[in-house]
Amino acid sequence: MKINIYYGGRGIIDDPTLSVISQITAVLQELNVKVQQYNLYEQRNGITALPNTLKDADGIILASTVEWFGVGGYMMQFLDACWLYGDKEKIKQIYMAPVVMSTTHGEREGMTNLAAAWEMLGGLPCEGICGYIADTTKLENSSEYSKIIDKKAENIYRTISQKMPVFPASNQAVINKVAVANSIDLTPQESEQLSEYASDDKYVRTQKEDLQELASIFRDKMGQEEAAAGSSDEYAKVLKKKFTPVAGVRAKYKIVFQDNSRLNPIVIDVDNSKCDLRCQDEDGCDVVITADQKVFEEILDGHMTFQRAFMGGSVKMKGDFKLLRSMDQLFELMSE
Asked: What are the CA-CA distances from residue 1 to residues 99, 129, 165 (Å)?
């Protein structure tokens, strides 16, 4: 019999989980079980390839420590890799015993979460160990704690060796229904190759560069379409045409398009009867108006005013609110 132990803690000296799995290993080895331990924090760069190690295992132990909240990221990464790259047919035959110790709180929730995750993967959960240990030395020196761990380890061995039946769980039925549309039918060999690619830093880096190149092409194409739909110069011409002088108004406005960085800001410099419009970014403006391109086009089309868009939350503004109100007087945009 072979049992793999996947340890998801940080490997610190006073980690109570390390003490527990060390004692479990000793008991299992006395029962002629081959035990192999994988420290996930040491193999974090190759976690995506670890589901391949499940192939020759009769059972596994998922061990982690709750230091502040949950079982930790390394363990979740391993379970995520099992979901994406693991051989589901093999996992269905593997018993899993969770071992979760806590130095704060949440050990029972952590053990329950590991059991539920393994059930969703299709595996067979069995009785595990959980407990709160504030001082690891008490755990190591307590004969009562040792008896509990020995008994639990024997139960794990008995469950796996006798292949005890397990009641079906409802989350298995649910996951079969909700995940059927998103599942990818891969052979075990394809899953192994995919996991090896995912753990290959050079391959992943090349794929990211290819995706960035494709994204750049699409962005350029979208930018061309946006430029065809409207440009800062075109908007400035509309504003210039609609300008109506208001006595006593001297201010510099800037309109920024928050959803389209390809459009230059529009600077509107008003001095009584004069109005100078520039499509560029400038500092020292009295009012800065930030809006989506679509919202600004609705204002130009006369469907709403600057003030109404601001009150409705469609437009953001920095500066003097009175000057924002004057925008609707300076530019007669509302439809008749």
From this structure: 20, 21, 18
pLDDT in tens, 157-174: 999 999 998 887 776 665
> Count of CB atoms within 10 A of residue 152's CB?
20
Structure tokens at 28: 């299992």
Q: How far is CA 109 from CA 105, 112, 160, 328, in A?
A: 9, 5, 24, 59
Q: Which residues of 53-71 are buried (b: 16+ CB within 10 A; e: fewer)?
A: ebeebbbbbbbbbbbeeeb
Mean per-residue pLDDT, 52-64: 95
Specify whether the CB–CB gap between 226 and 259 falls below 8 A: no
> Which pLDDT score, from 0 to 100, does residue 7 have?
97
Q: Cβ(239)–Cβ(270) under 8 Å?
A: no
**Of 51, 44, 60, nearest in space to 10 by CA:** 44
Quick: pLDDT tens for 7-28.
999 998 889 999 999 999 999 9
Residue type, 70: G
What is the C-alpha to C-alpha distance for residues 34 and 24, in angstroms, rounded to an integer? 12
Task: Please say whether the beta carbons of 316 and 291 come within 8 A.
Answer: yes
Identity of the residue numbered 329: Q
Query: pTM of the full predicted structure?
Result: 0.56
User: Which residue in 63, 3, 52 sits closest to 31, CA to CA?
Assistant: 3
pLDDT, one tens digit per residue, over 246-277 is 888 889 999 999 888 888 999 999 998 889 99
| Residue owning tokens 């379970």 | 79
Listed in sequence order, the residues at least 6 apart from 82 whose beta carbon sits closer than 8 Å to its beta carbon are 51, 54, 91, 121
